[in-house]
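Running this now, will post back.
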Amino acid sequence: MVETLDFLKTRRSVLARNMTGPGPDAAQLRELLGIAARVPDHGKLAPWRFVVLEGDARGKLGAIAAAALGDESVAADYERAPCVVAVLACPVAHPKIPRSEMILSAGAACMNLLTAAQAAGFAAQWLTGAAAYEDAVLRALGGNVGGTDGDEIAGFIYMGTAHEAPSERARPELDEIIQFGLKD
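Update: finished.
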C-alpha cells in the first residue's frame, strides 16, 4: 500500500509532445484497458468505450480534426505519441441512473487508464482539446452523435515513452480546496 501511495503522490503526466516510442504492445494495452474498465459503474452499464489509435489511424483522425476545426496545425496532434486511446462516454437511458453518473464513470476510466499506463512505466497524458467537441471526430471514432442523448469524448489518453522527464507543476494549497463539514 505504501508503494501505491508513494506512486500517487509523485504521479505526473508527461506532455504528449515529449513522448516517443515505444508505446504499449498489444498484450500490455489489453491489460491497461482491463484496468481502465475497473471503475465505479452504477448499474453495471459500462457507459464508455475505448478506441485505440496507432499507426496511420492517428494521422487519419488528425486530418478529420483539422478539417472539422479549419486548422491544419491540429493534424499532427494525434501523432505526438505512438498510442492514443480515445475514451468515449456512452451513456444510456436509464430510469434510475442519471447521465451525469455515466459521464463521471467515463472520466474515471480515463484516470484509471492514465494511472495504469504510468504505473506500467509508460509516459501518459490525458488531453481533450477543441476537436473532442466536434461531431465529425466523434463520428470517426464510432460515437453516436445525438445532441443531449449522444456520446461524448471523455478524453484522449496519449501513451508512449518519455524522451524528457516531466516537470512538476504548481498544485493547489489543500486549505483552499478542502472544507470539513457543512457551511453555516
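The chain has a mean pLDDT of 94. More later if anyone needs it.
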